[in-house]
Write a structure and sequence with these properties.
By secondary structure, this protein is of the alpha+beta class. The protein folds into three domains: 107 residues, Helix Hairpins (Orthogonal Bundle), CATH 1.10.287; 51 residues, SH3 type barrels; 81 residues, Alpha-Beta Plaits (2-Layer Sandwich). It contains seven helices and ten strands. The strands form three sheets. Strands 4-3-2-1-5 form a five-stranded antiparallel sheet. The termini are far apart.
């Protein structure tokens, strides 16, 4: 019984000694970490309006503010470890070795991150732009560190890893697209009348932009007729609907004015034997 009491007293004494020796340091370390969290949030709140004035995109602003918060918190964490008497050099060396191993195992992910940072800071396209890249095209819905998401007119989405975008030829249409409509009329048609009717159709269509002005003219002369090129601009969401509406209006207008569309022609000569 006496030995048990002595053991209990020794445990209590050891615990009390640990509290006396390390308690203040742990308390100070906790205070330092809390201060680092508060200062990190304060710094991010100060930087956010600055990034807005610099007209940085939402993705870039979020990345920079989070990075600033992590750096501040990391600095305070180092101060807390130093207060506890932790040797930082061996710890940093160990983290370096572990980081090298992790980097080798995550080459694909790190490649996406590197490409994502390049896209975010060089800004070859923005959210809302219509782009064509890596054999895919669509409206940019989201740009993250790992991938870029495109939206199609059929409501589907394509997620492209950022490393597939780096080094590819990018076609950025921006917020508007130019339609490419070809109409071939017969050789006997008065082309000036046809062009005038097409211009009226374009002016009447609300989806066709006035600026830049539509381009309309003779695109090609063929054996079967005269091809008219019609290239107006429309906002990206209106592109498909505008193509259908303009084609329908041209067909109905040409029929009403007896303007004949060209038909495939083939000349066959028979030689007498």
């Amino acid at each position: 019984m006496d030995s048990s009491l002595q053991s209990l007293d020794q445990v209590k004494a050891s615990a009390l000694d640990m509290v006396v020796r390390f308690g203040p340091k742990l308390l100070v370390a906790a205070i330092i970490l809390v201060a680092g969290y508060v200062v990190g949030r304060w710094v991010s709140r100060i930087l956010e309006p600055l990034f807005v004035r610099l007209k940085l995109e939402t993705t870039v602003r979020s990345l920079l503010t989070r990075t600033a918060r992590v750096l501040v918190l990391g600095l305070f964490a180092i101060l807390a470890l130093q207060n506890l008497g932790v040797e930082l050099l061996p710890l940093i060396a160990g983290l370096g070795v572990a980081g090298a191993g992790i980097a080798l195992a995550m080459q694909g992910i790190l490649g996406n991150v590197a490409a994502g940072l390049t896209i975010i800071f060089t800004r070859p396209f923005h959210v809302g732009d219509y782009i064509s890249i890596a054999r895919e095209e669509g409206v940019v819905l989201d740009i993250s560190l790992f991938s870029t998401t495109l939206g199609h007119s059929d409501k589907s989405m394509v997620v492209i890893p950022n490393r597939k975008i780096g080094g590819e030829i990018l076609h950025n249409y921006g917020q508007i697209r130019q339609l490419g409509i070809l109409v071939t009329v017969a050789h006997g048609v008065d082309v000036n009348v046809a062009l005038s009717l097409i211009e009226e159709i374009l002016r009447a269509n609300s989806r066709v932009l006035r600026d830049p002005a539509p381009v309309c003219g003779l695109a090609q002369l063929t054996e079967s007729g005269v091809t008219i090129g019609i290239r107006p601009w429309a906002n990206v969401p209106d592109y498909d609907a505008a193509v259908g509406e303009i084609n329908k209006a041209i067909l109905e207008t040409f029929r009403a004015h007896n303007i004949a569309l060209s038909l495939p022609q083939r000349e066959v000569r028979m030689l007498a034997g």
